[in-house]
Amino acid sequence: MTRPAFLAAFAVATALGTAALAQTQPYAPGAHNIALPADWQARFIRYTTVDRPDRKIIRNMYVNPEAFAALQAGQPLPYGTLAVMADQRARVDAAGEVLRDGNGRLIPEPAFIAIAAQQKERGWGEGYGPDQRNGEWEYAVFDPRTGARAERPLNACFTCHLQARAQQDFSFSTWDYANRSR
Ligand code: HEC
Question: Where is the Cytochrome P460 domain (predicted)?
């Protein structure tokens, strides 16, 4: 082998080795598995908004377009689903009562005050106990200003979604959207 040919072969072998290493990185349970893509606000589909007058917030529900296109009634949500719930404060009057627009909907203040996410990937969920495991889903919360993942206990996310929605692939609004009558 000539020296350049040897170097080229070496470079290819190294690249393949690095790729193989990245692929065999073992899954470990935890929020670190979920990242909020930098362009999520521009790219994700806002499929519904939920008014929560009880908490004086509006919840904007987004999902990545690949999963949105693959949603099917009666089916588990597709692998690769990343649902993002971004909350806004509702406008209130001087007495602190929520204001409503002409359609009776709450009126959002511009900024997001909380961002929560759930993501489903093949093989995820391994390592959680039966009282916590949500199929192949992971949960995470993000700083609403920076989009950086926030360190927070997530037990309640698993418990509530498990108890209320085990038969709906642990999903609330995404499942309901996929199964609504059209
Ligand atoms: C007490 C029950 C409860 C807890 C705890 C909870 N959720 Fe939810 N979650 C809901 C409900 C109910 C909805 C639907 C929206 C609504 O009605 O507010 C929802 C919706 C969502 C959604 C939007 C997608 C969907 O299925 O509607 C995401 C993402 C989400 N939750 C993530 C989280 C994360 C992350 C945590 C923990 C930090 C968490 N949830 C804790 C009940 C809960």
Answer: 37-172
Residue-averaged pLDDT of the chain = 91
Over the stretch 85-102, which tens digit does the pLDDT of each residue have? 999 999 999 999 999 999
Q: Three-class SS of residue 56? A: coil
In a domain, 4, yes or no: no
18 lies in some domain = no
d(CA 13, ligand 1 centre) in Å: 45
Q: How far apart are CA 113 and CA 138, in angstroms?
A: 21
Q: Spell out which residues line ligand 1, taking CB within 6 angstroms.
A: 50, 52, 59, 61, 83, 85, 116-118, 139, 141, 154, 156-157, 160-161, 171-174
Say which CATH number the domain at 156 has: 3.50.70.20
Q: What is the pTM of this model?
A: 0.88
d(CA 99, CA 83): 28
Residue keyed to tokens 């698993």? 158
Q: Which residue out of 157, 174, 180 has the highest number of ligand 1 atoms within 8 Å of its CB and is therefore the one to mutate?
A: 157
Structural domain includes residue 75: yes
